[in-house]
Amino acid sequence: MNRPGLARTAALTVLTLSAFAANSILCRKALLTEAIDPVSFTALRLGSGAVVLLPFLRSRADAPAVWSPRAAAALLAYAIAFSLAYVSLDAGTGALLLFGLVQVTMIGSGLRRGERLGGLGTVGFLAAASGVVWLVLPGVSAPNARGAILMSIAGIAWGGYSLLGRGLQAPTRATARNFALAAPGGLLLLVPFASSIAITTNGALLAVTSGAVTSGLGYVVWYTALRGHSATSAAIVQLAVPVLAALGGVAFLGEQPTTRLVGAGALTLGGVAVALMARRR
């Protein structure tokens, strides 16, 4: 790739990773200040994401995209578990659990299909899994158990969503269709929680920004950036998201990273990076 191409890929990648980290910051800020309830945040996030992706709904004949109820269900499961988890988790802790479980889920799926990591890859995978376990073990600095379980569900759901989207020829259009299918589900979730709905103007703005900008447009930019990445490099650069989310939590939310978070984060992200590079070799 020439220098302008590398610079463009790098700029798009940094922009996307910042957007993904911002999702954690926006959601945590909205729920920490009680500006909106988590179910309403989810509904507005999915709905605004679907709206901003509307121009990508139509498929060209040379790049078909399918409607996938399973992928939409995984997207909905991720979005609601993500919001509910951030009621009680710090931004950095939540992002580490999310992206750690996403990668562990995807690598584990490959192992079930018969892929082999080799000795170094196995060590990396076990290190990553150990980092996640360490993070959620009971103790003074352990994250809220309910929040950790919910974010783990979100990570597994997002990992499943990513697996369902492998090899798509029109990923942006497929994403638009998944949001279009998931958005009504987000509205239906409001029904059983009608008595606890609480939305302020600031909360609605945070949710719409998360859906339209850092999710919807973020995915469009990410799929553009992917043209300059190999599958392995794309997976590895995403490991920066929990770090960015933790830094954002400190800068914008006044959060203080714990020794456990730093240690478990290094173990998890380092282990995933080793496993991915070993698999590539």
Describe the structure.
The mean pLDDT is 89. The chain has helices spanning 3-32, 38-52, 69-85, 91-112, 118-136, 145-164, 171-188, 201-225, 231-237, 240-253, 259-280. It has 281 residues and is mainly alpha-helical. The protein has one domain (3-280). The radius of gyration is 18 Å and the shape is globular. The protein contains eleven helices and no strands. Helix 2 (38-52) runs antiparallel to helix 7 (171-188).
Fraction in beta strands: under 5%
Largest sheet: none
Q: Could you give the distance between the termini?
A: 21 Å
Rounded Rg: 18 Å
How much helical structure, as a percent, in the residues? over 70%
| Poorly predicted regions | none
Q: Give the overall silhouette.
A: globular
Give the count of structural domains. 1
The SS-based structural class is mainly alpha
User: What is the chain-wise order of helices and strands?
Assistant: HHHHHHHHHHH
The average pLDDT value, as a whole number, equals 89
Count the beta strands: 0
Count the helices. How many?
11
